[in-house]
Design a protein that fits this description.
This protein is of the alpha/beta class. The protein has a single domain (36-154), classed as Glutaredoxin (3-Layer(aba) Sandwich), CATH 3.40.30. It contains five helices and nine strands. The strands form three sheets. Strands 5-4-3-8-9 form a five-stranded mixed β-sheet. A hairpin with a 5-residue loop joins strand 1 (13-15) and strand 2. The radius of gyration is 14 Å and the shape is globular. It starts with 12 loop residues before the first strand and ends with a helix.
């Protein structure tokens, strides 16, 4: 179960694909969409990140930034980002702190892998409060982008 709406968002400091540290405080004054995904280069994860890429302008118009988070290394995420022309930061939660803090830790993924991110999303408002969360228990199921957009629209 993801964090409850109305709770303070856990802070984070993670490295992006340029090996630059990114934290929640970097987004102060903006709404932040955190897209959690299990693994780079898998079909549904690629579709999730590419959908966010394609809708980035509409999110930006709603005063929202987007980041993608997985436990892949920054190096793997860099290749994934380049190959798919992702136009927002992908953050490496290699040590699995953020996925635990946001209740997005997947106990059992494909091929017996343990401890990847669940597929999900968290919306943190400009004051650092969780305003929307969604987790798909089945990693093969995509997040509800319409519900995500409706949640962001309410924060405009």
């Amino acid at each position: 179960m993801a964090l409850a709406v109305g709770t303070k968002a856990p802070d984070f400091k993670l490295f992006n694909t340029d090996k630059k540290e990114v934290s929640l405080s970097d987004f102060a004054g903006k709404n932040l969409i955190i897209q959690f995904f299990p693994a780079a280069f898998t079909g549904v994860c690629t579709a999730q990140m590419c959908s966010s890429r394609d809708d980035l302008a509409s999110y930006n118009n709603m005063n929202a930034s987007v980041v993608g988070v997985s436990v892949d290394s920054p190096f793997t995420l860099g290749v994934f980002k380049e190959k798919n022309a992702i136009n927002f930061d992908l953050l490496s939660d290699f040590n699995k702190k953020l996925i635990n803090d946001y209740d997005m830790y997947h106990e059992a993924f494909a091929l017996g892998m343990i401890g990847v991110a669940k597929r999900g999303v968290a919306v943190v408002d400009k004051d650092g409060v969780i305003q929307y969360t969604e987790t798909t228990e089945n990693p093969g199921v995509q997040v509800n982008f319409d519900a995500l957009k409706a949640a962001i629209e309410k924060l405009k």
